[in-house]
Amino acid sequence: MASTSTIFLVLRIYCRSVRTRMMWWDDYLLIIGWMFLMIGVSLQTVVFGSGYRVTTLSGPIITPANLASDNAMKLSLAFSKTSFALTLLRFTTGWLRPVIILITCMTDIMCLVHTILVWRPTCGAESAFSLGSCWSINSGIWMNMIGSIVSAVTDFGLALIPIYSVWDLQMVKREKAGVAIAMSIGVLAGIVAVLKAVEALEVTRVVGTEFSRRLAVLSIWIHAEPNATIVAASIPVLRVLIRDVAKSFASYHPSAAHYVKSDGVFQSANLSNVRATSINSDHDSETVILPIFKPGTEADDRYRAEGQEAVELRKLHAHVPSG
């Protein structure tokens, strides 16, 4: 999972740095989230290597490495979701912006509270490293389950916002669908959060060595959620890379220059006017996915030049007979 999210993040950074030559706060926050993810994975590897020892209380001995790994995962989740929320704020207006901010604050507060409460000791067990008053052995599991439910709700909320926003843009309908789907992949993180909540419920129903095994499985799901979030936040940017690869392949293979662009129109060498329309459509869609450049910068000048070139190309082919 960690390798998959790393690949997607590297490709996202490549698209941003090469395509626009400008990184923004959502990119930096996602990188920070990935760094916490790597820390959590490393600590959890140590925990799995030593195993969960079972005490006389029929529960596993939770080591500081396990709790620190859980903290790193929660911080990774908070940073990665905040990154995606910042991306959404770039092209949303009106009442959607306060909703995004509210969802982000709920997620961040939930993660922060979890990172503190997870260190509370279990009543009846020796926990010299824990802080605060003790609670029952299942209390931490229930806290994780409630947090997973909140996380799932916020994931689904952030996934639905792009669909509502993109559908009002002046774009081809199939192009709208492509952008909306790309921006709504965050629903995968919501599904992972639901599965994590179900697994947390199962942990509360078992004892002994089965409790330790279930806790190990729950740890895997805890690590899966930030991985899924990083992948979901990277996919919208990769859409541009896939489009450019398809165009490059078509230019080097004229006989195979028939492909479907992101607006769903079948392209070929003798459909010049349709090609020009599609180029402009793809260019419009990038205003949703790629950063909005600062006026007067080199990136802004290049972006405007590309847009003007697409417009002139469309006008030129509009006067060419379609023999």
UniProtKB/TrEMBL annotation:
InterPro entries: Rhodopsin_dom_fungi, SAT4-like. GO terms for cellular component: membrane. Pfam families: Fung_rhodopsin. Its main location: membrane. The chain crosses the membrane at residues 28-52, 99-121, 141-167, 179-198. The keyword Nucleotidyltransferase does not apply. Belongs to the SAT4 family. This is Rhodopsin domain-containing protein. It comes from Colletotrichum costaricense.
